[in-house]
Automatic annotation (TrEMBL):
Source species of the chain: Spirodela intermedia
Protein name (record): Uncharacterized protein
Membrane-spanning segments: 6-27, 54-77, 89-109
Localization annotation: Endomembrane system
Alphabetized UniProt keyword annotations: Membrane, Signal, Transmembrane, Transmembrane helix
Length: 158
């Protein structure tokens, strides 16, 4: 039995959504709690252990974006060759509410994941500090996994 077009799109959205979730959780688990401060002449140089946190966070961002695009395709793509006008689609209160919540949760998760990944990248690239009391932190604990849990809520509601 061949999969229908609807099932293929649903599986693709789910696959990339679950992939984004898993990558975000793995990135959180691989993230070191802090770097090692090394005393220099009037500066602290932070040395972080080698890990894949920024790469995994970036891949999670990309996966979530692909899932979001495929979700949009699933709403607007013609079903069995018949296109439904957009104004008719959004006359349905149920679809409008679901669509608004899904977009809001996805944008929130994407923003949170970008914030955490960019912050982690800044900690690693800007590692020389003139404050001699600096303790070499990493991105806030939970900030890479939280977007995944927001996303899982969206996937479970769809």
């Amino acid at each position: 039995m061949a999969l229908s077009q609807t099932v293929k799109i649903a599986l693709a959205v789910s696959f990339f959504g679950v992939l984004a979730f898993v990558l975000g959780v793995v990135a959180e688990n691989k993230k070191p709690p802090s770097g090692t401060p090394i005393q220099g002449k009037g500066v602290i140089i932070c040395q972080y252990p080698s890990d894949q946190t920024v790469l995994l966070g970036s891949l999670s961002i990309i996966s979530l974006f692909i899932s979001m695009l495929l979700g949009f395709v699933s709403v607007f793509y013609p079903y069995k060759g018949k296109s439904v006008p957009t104004e008719v689609l959004f006359r349905s209160t149920t679809l409008l509410v679901f669509f608004t919540i899904a977009v809001g949760v996805t944008v929130l998760a994407e923003g949170m994941m970008m914030w955490a990944t960019i912050t982690e990248g800044f900690h690693r690239s800007r590692n020389v500090h003139h404050n001699l009391e600096y303790d070499c932190p990493t991105a806030k604990t939970g900030s890479l996994a939280a977007p995944g849990f927001w996303l899982s809520m969206q996937l479970s509601s769809g």
